[in-house]
Amino acid sequence: MRLRNIIFTAAILTASPVVGAEEDNPENGQDQSAARAVQAHVDAYRSGDLGRFLGTFAPDAIVNLNGVTVATGHQQISALYRVNFVQGAPAIRVDSSGMNGDLLFLSIAYIFPDGSEVCCSYSEYEVTNGKITRLYTQG
């Protein structure tokens, strides 16, 4: 069965991990799977390993920016995000996260080596079978 979760990402600041679903949620297993996929995505970004980051996306994943498709598939996603994996690229920190039904949300900010912060972009992720299939971001 196809698992489909949407994750809202607002960019703000802190170091909280992505959290799972509430224990009384009847879809807890599916929500936990989506939370693990998003946590792997955040961890891969933090690791500075572009290949690991790409591995969190499905091979045919789509990235939309402000309503426009800007990348489809690993090759285009790699080209889009490569700048985030060079020396001096910003780090990310998660402010808050949680789930409400199949909705998983995050708050994130980018922190540059000089200490300056960039806030706020919003993102929505669709996760299917443990991989990000669509990323919608505004910023």
UniProtKB/TrEMBL annotation:
InterPro entries tied to this protein: NTF2-like_dom_sf
So which domain of life are we looking at?
A: Bacteria
Q: Which UniProt keywords apply?
A: Signal
Record-linked Gene3D superfamilies: 3.10.450.50
Instruction: Tell me the leader sequence span.
Output: 1-21
Q: What is this protein called?
A: Nuclear transport factor 2 family protein
